[in-house]
Each structure stands twice: as C-alpha cells, then as structure tokens.
Amino acid sequence: MKVSDIMTPNPFCISHEASLKDAHLLMQTRNVRHLPVISETSGELMGMLTHKKMIATVLTMLNKYGQGALERRERYTPIAQVMDTQVQKLGLDEPLTIVVQYFIDNKLGCLPVVDEHNKVLGIVTSSDFVKLCQRLLLQP
User: Where are the transmembrane segments (predicted)?
Assistant: First the structure.
C-alpha cells in the first residue's frame, strides 16, 4: 500500500497571509486539526499549522494579554508567525511501511502530500491510519 491509498485528498488549506483568527475559525467550522499553509500567489506549501500549535499560541496570548485583548491579538497575528516551516512532505507513491514508521518515530499527527511542484494534493493523518486499521480488521 502507498500514501495515495489512505490520504485525504484536497484538504482544507489556508493562505500564509491569513491570520491566526482565520485559522482558528476554519479549524472550528470544518472540524479539522491540521492545516497546510500555502502561498497566496503560487499555491505552494509553505508550512503546517496544527490544532495543538494553534491552541498553545492562543493560550500564551490569553495568559500574556488577557481575555479582552485575545481576539484582537488573534486577528492581527499572521499565520506565518505561528506555522511550522520545517515540514516533512510525502509523495503519492510513498510506501506506507516507511510512512507509518516515520509517524511512530517522530510522534506526528499529519504529513502533507505534495506533487513535484510542491502543491498540496492531500494529507495523511493519524486518523487515516486508524481508518486503514479498521478496514483491515473488518476484512474477512
């Protein structure tokens, strides 16, 4: 099996020019925990924003500035300041045996799947592996 067999195609992405508030709302309304961050102009992958990283940033802001300033701070914090830029990427044909070991060794929740031009094709999450496990366990 390979990445293309389990990935979630066409994931929700967010522009690198968006605010932390935009990301927060997108994660809430779309019920996602991982957002590939793409260039507004080229559409290329620039980084990843995870729910864990977003929550940690929001809590830091809350503790530092208080509830009253939180929304303003979120609105004016560029996602580019918060996202992880050192992101391991996958190709469609990457074997799952290698990917699963990488997830385990690095305690990751997701990895973006990109084409040869660094455009996001999909995302592989720990939930995708759980779904695969369920499928395999239910096979006769």
Answer: none
Residue 90's pLDDT band (boundaries 50, 70, 90)? very high
40 — phi, psi (to 5°)? -60, -35
Check if the beta carbon of residue 79 is closer than 8 Å to that of residue 37: yes
Dig out the tokens for 70 from the structure: 């939180």
Beta strand segments in 1-140, E: 8-9, 14-15, 34-38, 45-50, 110-114, 120-125
The pairing of strands 14-15 and 34-38 is parallel
Number of helical H runs and strand E runs in the chain: 7, 6
Q: pLDDT tens digit string along 3-53?
A: 999 999 999 999 999 999 999 999 999 999 999 999 999 999 999 999 999
Tokens of 126: 């720990």
Q: Which tens digit of pLDDT belongs to each residue from 111-133? A: 999 999 999 999 999 899 999 99
Polymer length of the chain = 140
